[in-house]
Specification:
The complex is a heterodimer of chains A (about 220) and B (about 260).
Chain A lengths: L1 E12 L2 E13 L4 E5 L6 H9 L6 E6 L19 H12 L3 H12 L14 H14 L4 E5 L7 H14 L4 E5 L3 H7 L2 E6 L2 E5 L2 H10 L1
Chain B lengths: L1 H26 L11 H18 L2 E2 L2 E2 H22 L2 H4 L11 H30 L8 H28 L2 H12 L15 H7 L3 H14 L10 H24 L4
Antiparallel strand pairs in B: 1-2
Helix pairs in contact in B: 1-5, 2-3, 2-5, 3-5, 3-6, 5-6, 6-9, 6-10, 9-10
The chains are: A alpha/beta (about 220), B mainly alpha (about 260).
Chain lengths: ~220, ~260
């Protein structure tokens, strides 16, 4: 279970502060799939970063009683000057996994072949997404945080992601931010609409999508 | 207790992984690889030592000039590199904040540790070569040398713990750090023993944690003949105070850290 209580986040802006999230509450139970909806800049990514512990809330509390992945997005989590293999080795080390297992999974999942010997900064955004996805799926978490990244990549990659994430790991909790209404409708039990710094939770996905469409 | 042990094991693994990552990024895997980390202190020690040897003759106050300069320059280079490497270390490494088990403190620790290991290797290398050439004494008291060097490293680390968060708060720091470290050289114990100074100057420099550590370090190498004087409570107390301040500053900066 993950519990967010009255979570607020603000950033310094000029002389004042920009309040991105204001007193947002959220409870994620094991196995739940929660979608985040909201316009660009509504705070979806910020909220995911707070849940993942990448950035810390200005006020409020986040308690994690299950293992939570790092937010899966385009950038974060790896170092551009290192090769794909070096990044895999690093992840294996800090999460206490056998490098051999991680390497095999990454090779198989990314299909990047010899490109894995090149620095990550030479990768296209699709290739980066493949690597990012492979690395975080190689580590078993009870809750995965996914920020938009499902949408990139070719259809082969998308098929693989869906299989690994929704079929093989369907019992895990999942939070994903997406603008794809199809994806949210198909896979989510609940959806939160973020707007004006507040988050409203809907158990009826269609209602959430209607509200989102009217923003 | 077992929680603490697990936590420590975990943290050690993280620090190990960060060190390898840092070394691969900085030096790559080509040619001598990781050995590059001792190149900087080594070159400074040897080249400045040779320069002074020709300027001032083979000995000063009864000790070999080359040995004396080498024992001074390796710690000084370590200190300067550690300080430079701590500037903006949180921003530079912020992408690593994606992994919750990595703490901002690890960044400072890893960078200082790499410089310290490089300097220690340089000490061993220079020592071995110079002893073979007859330019360096067989260390009189290894324990004193190690103790002095550890105190020097500890105090450097505590300074870095403050500079790292401070450099995130203000850009000015980056500009003034090089000149300040240069001006502070008389208080670094690099170029002279305390006993060579006038009584007034002796009183002043003995407040410096670096000088106390250097005196102990050099006593360990040159023995009682150089009339070293030190008080280990000076570097210990100074490190403790700076570490406490630094830790609370790091904690504050972590809350504000923006990760792309």
């Amino acid at each position: 279970m993950i519990v967010c209580e009255k979570v607020s986040k603000s950033y310094p802006m000029g002389r004042g502060r920009k309040h991105v999230l204001k007193d947002v509450d959220l409870e994620i139970r094991p196995g739940e799939h929660i979608g985040f909806l909201g316009r660009n800049g509504a705070g979806k990514t910020t909220f995911i970063k707070l849940i993942g512990g990448v950035e810390l809330a200005t006020s409020g509390k986040i308690r994690r009683q299950m293992s939570v992945s790092w937010p899966l997005g385009f950038g974060g989590g790896f170092q551009g000057s290192l090769t794909g293999y070096d990044n895999a080795r690093f992840i294996a080390r800090i999460y206490g996994y056998e490098y051999g297992d991680i390497r095999d999974f990454v090779e198989d999942f990314t299909e990047l072949g010899p490109q894995l010997k090149m620095p990550v900064k030479t990768y296209s955004s699709g290739m980066r997404a493949r690597l990012a996805f492979a690395l975080s799926l190689a580590i078993e978490f009870e809750c995965y945080l996914i920020d938009e990244v499902i949408m990139v990549g070719d259809s082969n990659f998308q098929r693989k992601c869906h299989y690994e994430l929704f079929d093989k790991r369907g019992d895990r909790a999942l939070i994903f931010a997406s603008h794809s209404t199809d994806l949210i409708r198909e896979y989510c039990n609940r959806a939160m609409v973020l707007h004006g710094g507040t988050g409203t939770m809907y158990t009826d996905i269609n209602q959430a999508l209607e509200i989102y469409a009217s923003l | 207790m077992s929680d603490l042990a697990t936590g420590w094991r975990f943290q050690r693994r993280v620090i190990g992984a960060l060190m390898v990552r840092e070394l691969v990024t900085r030096f790559g895997r080509e040619n001598i690889g990781f050995l590059w980390m001792m190149a900087d202190p080594l070159l400074f020690a040897v080249l400045v030592g040779i320069l002074w040897r020709f300027m001032k003759g083979p000995e000063e106050h009864g000790v070999s000039i080359i040995a004396f300069i080498a024992t001074g320059y390796i710690p000084l280079t370590f200190f300067r590199n550690a300080v430079t490497r701590s500037i903006r270390v949180f921003t530079v490494n912020s992408s690593l904040m994606y992994h919750r088990q990595i703490k901002v403190l690890d960044f400072v620790l890893v960078r200082v540790l790499i410089e310290a290991i490089g300097a220690t290797m340089a000490f061993l290398f220079v020592g071995a070569v110079l002893v073979a050439l007859g330019e360096f004494p067989i260390p009189a008291d290894i324990g004193a040398f190690v103790g002095g060097w550890l105190l020097y490293c500890l105090f450097t680390f505590s300074i870095c713990l403050i500079l790292a968060p401070l450099s995130e708060m203000s850009d000015v720091l980056e500009k003034i750090v090089p000149v300040v470290t240069y001006i502070a050289i008389p208080f670094s114990g690099t170029f002279n023993m305390v006993s060579w100074l006038t009584p007034a100057a002796q009183n002043a420099v003995l407040y410096s944690p670096f000088v106390n550590a250097m005196e102990l370090l050099r006593y360990g190498i040159f023995g009682p003949g150089i009339d070293a004087q030190w008080d280990i409570t000076v570097p210990l107390a100074a490190s403790l105070v700076l570490t406490l301040i630094g830790l609370s500053m790091c904690r504050r900066i972590r809350r504000e850290l923006v990760v792309e």
